[in-house]
Write a structure and sequence with these properties.
mainly beta, 3-stranded antiparallel beta sheet, 0% helix
């Protein structure tokens, strides 16, 4: 599969997660304070909660339910109760389009 359009760059607000779904894969997109766009799996590995409903701080996305923060760059949890990482996807920008291939995770 090749990368597919997830949303427009203009649809992303800084430090505000956006949930998208591509071929049944839920992904949380975040444009951080440096205007870097990150794509990580949208489900917290601790409680199966949507991370797109969480809080962005720096390069982390915190689950609103139990407080586990995940690195936007690696997907690794930075504190308990989560201990398993979420997938991280490569992001390609083409004009205003944010493209993601949900079948390929980044090597971190």
């Amino acid at each position: 599969m090749s990368a597919q359009r997830a949303c427009g760059v203009s649809e992303l607000e800084q430090d505000t997660p956006l949930r998208v779904e591509i071929d049944g894969v839920a992904i949380a997109l975040v444009k951080d304070a440096d205007d870097v766009i990150h794509a990580i799996g949208d489900r917290c590995t601790h409680g199966d909660i949507s991370l797109a409903e969480g809080f962005v701080e720096g390069k982390t996305l915190e689950c609103w339910a139990h407080g586990s923060a995940f690195s936007l760059e690696t997907g690794h949890p930075l504190n308990l109760p989560a201990y398993e990482p979420v997938p991280v996807y490569a992001v390609t920008i083409d004009g205003d389009d944010v493209l993601i291939d949900p079948t390929v995770t980044k090597e971190v």
